[in-house]
Amino acid sequence: MSAKKTATPQDITPGIRLWISLHGDGVFGHGKWQLLDAVHRKGSLRAAADWLGISYRKAWGDLRKAERALGIHFLERHRGGISGGESNLTEEGRKWHREYARFQDEMDAEVARAFARFRGRMEQ
User: Is the full-model pTM beyond 0.85?
Assistant: First the structure.
């Protein structure tokens, strides 16, 4: 059995969870962004839920909760039949998908810069 290595400042990395709150309640974050992304890629909420490994009921409920809180609609839903239904992102859904990803990228870059300063101070 090998000895456990002691962590150095070079071994550690920052982690951050980002979400948008309304009156203290988280209404949109990475999970809902992933769901929008999966709908965009897979073409239906059911296929997106399956791809993400969550129930359709949870996916539908999470998006409905966010839609109600924000007063917008993320999806245009078309009920299925024999061939199944489809869901498409609305214009607002596409905008939230695009801009939240941009926001996350900007925050990741800021965190990386702040962490580099932190690591520098720790190495002194």
Answer: no
